[in-house]
Amino acid sequence: MSEEKCGSGGIFLAFLAGGLLGAGLALLYAPAVGSDTRKRLSAMAEDMKKKSEHWGAEIKQKVEEIVDEESAVLKVAYAAGREAMEREKAKFEAAGEEAPAE
């Protein structure tokens, strides 16, 4: 059987979608006047919109931080690799100059 990997973001979104669906169904099936139910649904939708905007901003900030950190790590690794290449190139060239001509 194949294993499917699901990140924490996917799990969170599934949990959030399930919660919203459950809350919406509970409001629709609760004994209340239609206008009250519509007002409650509208208020809940507005609240979720505000929360999702806040979450979106937080997620964007965290992604930018991760990208910045990984970019810095890659730059350091690239510089170290380039430096190692230059050292090895210098050794190789020095060994070539010391080799006796045939």
User: From the helix content, strand content and strand pairing, which structural class follows?
Assistant: mainly alpha
Tally of DSSP β-strands: 0
Shape: rod-shaped
- Helix share of residues? over 70%
Overall pLDDT metric: 79
Molecular structure report:
- The protein is mainly alpha-helical.
- It has one domain.
- It has two helices and no strands.
- The protein has helices at 8-29, 34-98.
Ordered list of secondary-structure elements with their pairings:
Elements: H1 8-29, H2 34-98
Features:
102 residues, single chain
Structure at a glance:
This protein is mainly alpha-helical. It has two helices and no strands.
